[in-house]
Write a structure and sequence with these properties.
This protein folds into three domains: 4-206, P-loop containing nucleotide triphosphate hydrolases (Rossmann fold, 3-Layer(aba) Sandwich); 210-375, Rossmann fold; 390-429, no CATH class. It is 43% helix and 16% strand. The protein has helices spanning 11-19, 27-37, 52-63, 80-93, 110-116, 128-136, 153-158, 162-169, 190-196, 208-212, 227-237, 250-262, 276-287, 299-302, 322-328, 349-357, 378-398, 409-429, and strands at residues 42-45, 73-76, 101-104, 123-126, 147-150, 177-182, 201-204, 215-221, 243-246, 268-270, 293-296, 311-314, 338-344, 363-368, 371-374. The strands form two sheets. An eight-stranded mixed β-sheet has the order 10-11-9-12-13-8-14-15. A seven-stranded parallel β-sheet has the order 3-4-2-5-6-1-7, with helices on both faces. Helix 3 (52-63) crosses helix 4 (80-93).
Length: 430
Amino acid sequence: MSKFTDYQFKPFLREAIQKLGFEEPTPIQKEMIPLILKNTSAIGQAHTGTGKSHSFLIPLVEKIDTDKDELQTVITAPTRELATQLHTELKKLIEDTDIKTAILIGGTDKKRSADRLRITPHIIVGTPGRIRDMAETGALPIHTATSLVIDEADLAFDMGFIEDIDQFASRMPEKLSMYVFSATIPEKLKPFLAKYMNSPIHVQMDDKKPLTENMHYSLVPVRSMDKKKKLLHVMDAIQPYLAIIFTNTKQNADELADYLASHGYKPGRIHGDLTPRERTRMMKQVRDLEYQYIVATDLAARGIDIPGVSHVINFELPEDLEFFIHRVGRTARAGLGGMAITLYAPSDEDQINRIEKLGIPFVHEDVKNGEWIEVKERQARKKRVREIDEIDKKAVSIIRKPDKVKPGYKKKMAAEQEKFKKRQRRMKKK
């Protein structure tokens, strides 16, 4: 199908898709929608920003039978923010219909979650722990649901939620259609998948292109300057709609946010130590455009969807380089442009080389007097040092100590070697 109008969706769904402005399905949608409509279990391997949420939301809504007053579909996301975002998108698809939904997330009162289930929903979206709680208390009749979506499965695994999913999935029907979406499929996740999925179709998107499309990757050397001061120079040179500055730890995020605050900025902060209430308030403030800068850990690279990000700044390189892709994927979404700025010190050389092997086309730049200037590639100096070293070795091997030495031979030999080196350097320049 090349257009959404080619699908035989129910009229309300066609109208909702049109209202969202969707015309052509993305590659992951083209692959996944037909599989889900046919109840074929599948693994969709794609990064964020590829349209994967609607690749399962649209066909699952199409399959809901409102004549059956029972739970039919369970959708899990590893964080409250992602679950909330999915539920928001789901509600846009079912507006003015009889399809009932509920959201079950941690950080809220359990009694309130149970109250939401007094009228049985057709679809629930939630975090694994809260879904398990509601299933175990009997508040959620999970045994009737025939479709299960596990979104961001590798993140769910990293956060220790696979056991929760296993607990409630085991209560679901034997003929369960399972759809797993993940940027990567870790080896340790495979036994769980094998338990519930019998020969699933594996859809793997080659999404290297979207990484570089509409994106400018700036590599900025810190050199001998204090890194925080360098960041201030970079911030003075950009006018972001919204920029996320990434650090590797919660402590570093707080320290950097405090530093920026002391220099007249008002940064938001997002990391794992915020309480559910603080995170909800922070996300509301972000959406209300109260911040131009957010200092965050990698929780925001995968676990939280922040709209309108124009710039990403890597204050620190992530220890797991896969997270570099997730970080920069926060910007240049939905056809818009974006800028990813990476500050690096000489000690980051190996990591930068490995990131370049992932297909990232860095532009070597620096900021001087508030202006961006292109600088020589960091390899240029290394190459020159290597060439000088080679010429020196060659000079020593060709111009050696004579068999019969005379007074002053060392001085004469050194002068000849120097002449040879100059000739070689001139030849290199030609």
